[in-house]
Amino acid sequence: MQDVIENLSRTIREAASRRRPLCIRGGGTKDFYGGETRGDVLDTRACRGIVSYEPTELVITARAGTPLAEIDAALRAEGQMLAFEPPRFGEGATLGGCIATGLSGPRRVYAGAVRDFVLGVRVLDGSGNELRFGGQVMKNVAGYDVSRLMVGSLGTLGVLLEVSLKVLPLPVAEITLRREHSQTEALALMDEWSRMPLPFSASCHAGNQLCFRLSGAEAGVRAAREKMGGEEVADGTAFWEKVREQRLEFFGQPGPLWRLSVRSSMPPLDLPGTQLIEWSGALRWLKSDAGAAMVRDAAAGAGGHATLFRAEDKSAGAFHPLPAALMKLHRRLKQNFDPAGILNPGRMYPDL
Amino acid sequence: MRVVAEKLLVDLARQRQVVSALRAFLPESAVLFDEEDVKPYECDGLSAYRQVPMVVALPDTEEQVCRVLSTCNEMRVPVVARGAGTGLSGGALPLGNGVLLSLAKFMRILEVEPRSRTARVQPGVRNLAISEAASPHGYYYAPDPSSQIACTIGGNVAENSGGVHCLKYGLTVHNILKLRVATIEGEIVEVGSEALDSAGYDLLALMTGSEGMLGVVTEVTVRLLPKPVCAQVVMAAFDDTEKAGHAVASVIAAGIIPAGLEMMDQAATRAVEEFVHAGYRTDAAAILLCESDGTEEEVAEEIERVQKIMEESGAVQTQVSRDEAERLRFWAGRKAAFPAVGRISPDYYCMDGTIPRKRLGEVLRKIARMEQKYGLRCANVFHAGDGNLHPLILYDANVADELQRTEEFGAEILELCVAVGGTITGEHGVGVEKINQMCVQFRGAELEAFHGVKRAFDEHGLLNPGKAVPTLSRCAEFGRMHVHSGEEKFPDLPRF
Fold first, then answer.
1. pLDDT (average), residues A1-17
2. Minimal Cα–Cα distance from B238 to chain A, Å?
């Protein structure tokens, strides 16, 4: 494997010396995400394989080019899972892309996000130096938390080689229920439920249907089910996979797709288009032709931010603009890890 | 006992300049420099290291904090931020040529928002005060470091504090949503948001645990959790530490994430039992405490499974807490482990490594061998759920060369932690204490990257300089936490 890493490192060093941008890519399933990709493709898929997996340690370490499906299968065989339910968006999705995009699925609001499970990383910086941060243990406060900084940084700070993640046991019992509610009712209900100690693990409202999942110990799930009511959805697993992979009808509608991450207790956001709600109200997907400024103002007003998730035209910028003082810190961090500015330039913000 | 205090002579002319610059916008009472006024700030919970600061500033508005910082930046005066000063690694140790920026006046809970389950608080608010304020709404703030009655949330953010429940509920980084941070340039940046994520790099994570090196936190928004309806604990005694280690692994392998999972070896158990009479078996080689929380149905189901696993793993005795009083009594023993050890030895030195759980047996065996090698006893308490090991080396500083042997013993333990795939510090932070051991854990390239991160926030290296990340030229010797009985800075605070 060291030869694979040396090859990657050499490519980076050469690109840096010529200031030629590199486009870091694993399975290419998330090319659509963020700003436009440019530069020579740096394929990470040769850097592949599970390095170590100790179920009783609740830790898996795998190389960045490892397909998520392979990791999923290994965990499932031991009754464990990546609790943040990362979306694949295609067959070849890799661990590296999962970490670099920092996207989490339906269980996120209840179990935690990708960043909450990252324990350590091995990366190549923009000069081709191999760096290791964090480790394979749950508690580690030695040095700055660069591992979590890498999550969601879209490859602009380094090329991921290896990642250690905390994993969790699969729930003993799981059930998906459905109730009919308008958006306003559903939001109020999810808000009320989220203030109680209930074993929630997912929620999704689209049209007039509120679906939610309960996970945990048998007795706890049974008791909560009685409390909350609703009709059982036959194939819950398939349903949440469709939510996660954006294969529900909602996502098939034409037009740009926005992702609004907001304060969960916000009532319905008054925006043109249709919305699908996840994470007990904290995540609102919007299919709309509304202008970027309008959508972003609404998200900011709700304590959050808006991402132009899928669109033909991303000239308005994929990500929410940052205040000047924050952007200055971003530029300096980028300069530190990638002084030549060759790693995925423009993928996050035009000047990173 | 060695006092590592470099008695720098204060540059009086410089001191006058700084005092007058700060008094331009702070009242006289908020800028201290007389020896007797600044003396109380000379150390934090790691009292072996002492240094009187040149000036202490006590602002009470965010704007004043920004002005203190920008003034120091312009004058190139180093600044050390401080909350309650309960830290165990010397992170708040002042500088003789610097300003000690106390956040003690930032004690207000600005808002408890039951609908969004958040609380917005100032950095000087005590950890436990947040849970107390949230309690009428049925919520609490999950991270519970042992010093929670005194330590402040600002310090918790700086150290990424955990607690006995962090396997299930996470560390500070998992339980905060947003920070307002004053930069050394005197600008306010907001990192994180009221939503579950935010645009750009995850500076919330980067800032958490950065030991005051990147900015000064002026406001924290924390996530609150609904209080569990009930909690119960299983106490299990083992005649062999390896068996206890296997029991821990078996609980996890069974798909259980306990709310707390703690272990003590015989030396620790005996010291504790004599002290608080928690009901531990003193003939056991190790005691495990495993807590379950949640709804009554969940707890009943989980406790039954845990007890069965303990028995199958060879526990010589198991006992389930019958009521809240008994649950608290079981915990009282564990929580008194540090002071109990303090009673049986004139001094002890607490280590804070984390190891992969599966290496526990091996690590304890090697530590036992080191006890022979150094001629010193060691009691071990272990946050078994997350692998955080606190060996307490017993020594007497008044015996010639015991301190030196203790230091060598401690150094060998930390190196062992790194060698088995762990880390030199799980929760106490690097501070000044473990700065040299950073050289064992990281190579030059990573240390350089850390310095680069620091420069991105603090170009002139003025925020808490000399802590947490060693310069490459410094990577040489080792430092420690020492507690001398009666001389501990916070003798009444629980430490576990």
1. 97
2. 20
Fill in the amino acid letter for B342.
G
The answer to whether position A31 is within a domain reads yes
User: ipTM of the assembly?
Assistant: 0.97
Residue A328 domain-assigned (yes or no): no
Contact B259/A at CB under 8 A: no
> Model confidence over A267-324: pLDDT tens digits?
999 999 999 999 999 999 999 999 999 999 999 999 999 999 999 999 999 999 999 9
Q: Which amino acid would we find at residue A269?
A: L
User: Based on the domain organization, do A165 and A199 belong to the same domain?
Assistant: no
Q: Give the per-residue pLDDT at A197.
A: 82
d(CA B262, CA B279): 16
Same domain flag for A26 and A157 = yes
pLDDT at B1: 34
In sequence order, which residues have a C-beta less than 8 Å from that of residue B63 and are 6 or more positions away? none
Query: Are residue A122 and residue A214 in the same domain, yes or no?
Result: no
Helix (H) or strand (E) holding A130: strand A130-134
Q: What's the CATH code of the domain at A12?
A: 3.30.465.10
The 3-state secondary structure of A143-186 reads CCCHHHHHCCCCCCCCEEEEEEEECEECCCEEEEEEEECCHHHH
- Of the three residues A154, A169, A184, the one that is the final residue of a domain is A169
A199 and A129 in a common domain: no
| A241 and A195 within one domain | yes
Mean pLDDT over A187-191 rounds to: 94
Domain count, chain A: 2
| pTM check: above 0.90 | yes
* Confidence (pLDDT) at B334: 87
User: Any idea what the Cα angle at residue B112 is, between residues B109 and B115, rounded to 5°?
Assistant: 170
Contact yes or no for B227 and A197 at CB 8 A:
yes
pLDDT for residue A220 is more than 90? no
Residue of A nearest to B452 (CA): A336
B47, B35, B59, B52: which is closest to B3 by C-alpha? Answer: B47
Whether A104 and A9 map to the same domain: the answer is: yes
- B415-459: pLDDT as tens digits: 899 999 999 999 999 998 888 888 888 988 999 999 999 999 999
The predicted structure's pLDDT at residue B232: 97
Residue ranges of B 53-112 with Cβ closer than 8 A to chain A: none
Gap between the Cα atoms of B382 and B78, Å rounded: 37
Residue A300 sits in the same domain as residue A209: yes
Which of B193, B422, B434 faces A305 most closely, judged by CB atoms?
B193
Residue B423's contacts (CB-CB under 8 Å, 6 or more residues apart) are: A135, A137, A139, A140, A141, A142, B353, B354, B417, B441
Domain that holds residue A136: 2-169
Residues of chain A with C-beta less than 8 angstroms from the C-beta of B213: 144
Specify if A329 maps to a domain. Answer: no
> Is residue A157 located within the same domain as residue A206?
no
Using CA of residue A149, residue A154, residue A157, residue A160, what is the dihedral sign?
A: positive
Residue B494 has pLDDT above 90, yes or no: no
Note the pLDDT of residue A16: 98
pLDDT digits (tens, 9 = 90+) for B46-76: 887 899 999 999 999 999 999 999 999 999 9
Number of residues written out for chain A: 352
Q: Are A170 and A131 in contact (CB under 8 A)?
A: no
State both tokens at B322.
């019958």
Q: Do B450 and A152 touch (CB under 8 A)?
A: no
